[in-house]
Design a protein that fits this description.
Blueprint (H helix, E strand, L loop, with lengths): L1 H10 L5 H6 L10 E19 L5 E14 L2 E7 L3 E4 L4 E10 L9 E10 L9 E9 L12 E15 L2
Antiparallel strand pairs: 1-2, 1-8, 2-3, 3-4, 4-5, 5-6, 6-7, 7-8
């Protein structure tokens, strides 16, 4: 799946979502939804060192910071919310409703996110679901030794933006 969908994304070709979701893990599939856009993200996952419930220091996810690319050109950004903003002024925010493990322990999970908010008119206006797939990196490593410290973990992923129906 990674190679097939990755090749489609790299070529800027949007396959029907029903075909793409048939090959994704069930936890993040979006049967019956149609692809609006497929964008590649490159950036970092930001973590903060905090005291965990067991009283020990641990890294806690804070926010993503990434550039959204289409055919190698910057077309938007991804940031806390989580939110995605297209250069045409449209934007969506979402909440995770499903996940599947990344390919390796160093890769953040693949996600299915339900859109909870829309802003502006444009490419993302009709989006109801976002899938994060083909993740590379993003998992923080190393000791968390002082509360309040931050650490970034570089990552890349493909984001598939979907809408309900054909």
């Amino acid at each position: 799946m990674r190679v097939v969908l990755g090749a489609l994304l790299a070529a800027g070709i949007c396959a029907p979502a029903a075909e793409a979701s048939a090959e994704l893990p069930a936890a993040i599939a979006a049967a019956g939804e149609t692809m609006v856009a497929a964008l590649h993200a490159v950036g970092a996952q930001i973590y903060e060192c905090k005291i965990a419930t067991d009283g020990k220091l641990a890294w806690h996810f804070r926010e993503p910071i990434a550039t959204l690319l289409s055919e190698g050109k910057t077309i938007g950004r991804h940031y806390a919310g989580p939110s995605w903003e297209h250069m045409d002024g449209s934007a969506v925010a979402g909440k995770a409703v499903g996940n599947a493990p990344g390919e390796t322990p160093a890769d953040i999970p693949w996600l299915k996110l339900e859109v909870t908010d829309h802003r502006g008119a444009g490419t993302l206006s009709s989006v109801t679901t976002v899938q994060r797939i083909n993740t590379q990196g993003g998992v923080v490593t190393g000791a968390c030794e002082q509360a309040g410290r931050y650490r970034s973990a570089p990552y890349a992923a493909d984001y598939i933006f979907l809408r309900k129906g054909p």
